[in-house]
Amino acid sequence: MTLTPSVSGARSRRRPLLVALAAVLAAGTTAALGFWQLSRAHTKAERAQQVALQAALPPWTATDWPCGVTTDRDLPLQRPVRLRGQWWHERTVLLDNRSMDGRSGLIVVTPLRVSGLPRGCQGSVVLVQRGWIPRDPGAPRDQAHLPWVPRPAGEVEVRGRLIAEPARVYAIGQEAPPQGNAPLLRQNVDGAFWQQWLGQSPLVGAVLQLQAEDTPASDVTAPDAPAADGLWRQWPQADDGRGKHLGYAAQWFAMAALIVGLYVWHQLIRPRRAAARHVDEPVSRARCHESPHEHPRA
Questions:
Q1: In this structure, is the dihedral angle defined by the CA atoms of residues 173, 178, 181 and 183, taken in order, positive or negative?
Q2: Where does the pLDDT of residue 112 fall: very low under 50, low under 70, confident under 90, or very high at 90 and above?
Q3: CB count, 10 Å around CB of 124?
Q4: Residues facing 126 on adjacent strands
Q5: What's the DSSP call for residue 126?
Q6: In angstroms, how far is CA 125 from the centroid of its own chain?
Q7: How far apart are CA 136 and CA 126, in angstroms?
Q8: Is the pTM of this model over 0.70?
Q9: How do the residues of the chain divide into helix, strand and coil, expressed in percent and rounded to 5?
Q10: How far is 9 from 195, CA to CA, in rounded Å?
Q11: Mean pLDDT throughout 146-166?
Q12: Are the CB atoms for 252 and 37 separated by under 8 Å?
């Protein structure tokens, strides 16, 4: 089928318009995504500032802990915490596949029966991420070959900072219901697990323990040695994620600039250069046909 000159000309005139429209849409979309990532980075920066303010406040104690809260949305995360109570060692959980300083190991999570809670919270427990212990790489990875876990007796004082929940990692599938004796080996823990394992729901939030029980607040553990109780606590600093969003924003803005640059080059600069060459070609040919011996007469 042969297109008539009018149809062919209409299509040729429409093509630059469609290309321009596609370039505007693509550049606008990628630029909008860049600004969206910048707004997320700004939100994370504000949140990090709030966390820094919380970390400078006096420690939370048992009398400050909210009993009727069901979500961690209103908790002052990263605020220092100081609690007294007794460990519920019979319900200790070891979180598997956790690393520290490049070594594989387990995170110890033990419920703490908190003393001095407000009326109505008596008997409630708070989850404490007590520390990390290395795992023998040659030992079988099962419940029967777990490393020793310290079991301090009596009432202890726990110092740390407030977190939403114990650390989680990516897991495939669903774990079986808890059964057996402590310490129990798990990949992750959630509210449903604790309800089955404890027979009750712990208070909202958790404590990331920063030093051994009943040690001075100024006690600092060396980076290459465990604390006095045998647990390691070189926890990573909380990352607000600003760098990730700024990196994404830079990628989106670079893509928008690339789209604009390609459009300007292929649709504006190259066609004009090609048109200029076509104009110069007849002049060059005419000069080539002129005889070098022909001169205008005086």
A1: positive
A2: very high
A3: 19
A4: 112
A5: E
A6: 29
A7: 29
A8: no
A9: 40, 20, 40
A10: 74
A11: 91
A12: yes
